[in-house]
Amino acid sequence: MTTETETAPRTTNGSGQPLLSVEDLRVAFHTDDGVVHAVDGISYSLEAGKTLGIVGESGSGKTVSSLTMLGLTRSKRSKIQGRIMFQGEDMVALEDNRLRRVRGNDVSMIFQDPLSALHPFYKVGTQLIEAMQAHRSISKSAARNRAAELLELVGIPDPKRRVDQYPHEFSGGMRQRAMIAMALANEPKLLIADEPTTALDVTVQAQILSLLQDLQQRLGTAIIIITHDLGVVAEIADDICVMYAGRIVERGSAEEIFHSPQHPYTWGLLSSIPRLDNPRDEELVPISGRPPSLINRPSGCHFHPRCPYVRDAHKRVDPQLSPVDGSTEHVVACLLESSVRSRIWDGIQSGRDAESLQRMAAASAEPDYSNVAIPVDQESEGSALSPGEEGVVESEAPGERHGAAPPQTLDEVNRRFQEERNPPSGGDGPGPGGG
Length: 435
Prior knowledge:
alpha/beta, single chain, eight-stranded mixed beta sheet, four-stranded antiparallel beta sheet, 435 residues, 12 strands, 14 helices, 30% helix
């Protein structure tokens, strides 16, 4: 069985090794409220010239995993474990000086908000020139000519005039193109695109994705595209990782993820995408609930509070990534039997109502997890909270807590905790004369 903490499947380039291999990466931030488990044991690999899509809701750890690759999460209050092997070097263990030579040169990133990422006080051309001169021995005039070439490469009209303009003089789509030009200035081997189409209209979105594909074909660059929208990576990605609560819950080729998804979270993401082959009056199906707190994570399967097919064991047992039908490339972390998952997905595609699919899941045989079960009320890991308070998930409103009764008041929690610590020796309960 392939688990989440094992080495990612190796897709090789000409040298026999993948360009990038992330192995059991874990990133935690120590805060006053507790430990935030932003990334929890993810593994994947990427071959030169290929595209990997990382999808998931906000807060699933997508961006943090990529920022860690560039050393941008290093701080006194962060803890980083695992390895990020890039061209034979471990990016996690690299010294800061060496990492600066790699960042922006061999590995570049298109940040999520170009208006914030571009400095408002400096002209776009000046920022492009700085990116080149930081890593190459190049004159200012040659860098300026190169900057104009890059703007033309990404489809910005009249580039020789635009290099002398400020970011606020560019439209949203043009700023995004300028960010792509800056990321490509030193012809990196790996390009990380963090939500490159956010806040862009559909036409510009399609142009940006087409531009990334065209540049990849010209330069042979490997691309990691981070998004919450599976529709964005439908055409551009070769492989897809689906992330939830800091973990990869499903990983496979784009064809496998779109045509044979295995995780209920992936089904939810796919069901929320508009489709041209569906009736116009058909409503989209949102994923119920909200993402969990990464300080006080749910016990067992972290998705179980929102999963419509949850079983009792799912609240206790933490699923690990395992192969789908013997495939080493398509893996999923789900406790539902493979045959049950296939029937549910077929039912979703055929338009069966949700209640009948839930009854089918409930009627299926449940494996025996007694050897690995943990207490159901163990709701949290790594929290700085006191016993008895661990079960409250911050991101959930009262009454939503894992489908259970509303959480108790603090006084009730404290009283229950004292009763468990000091059980009565006799009588009906604690109190005078009762122990």
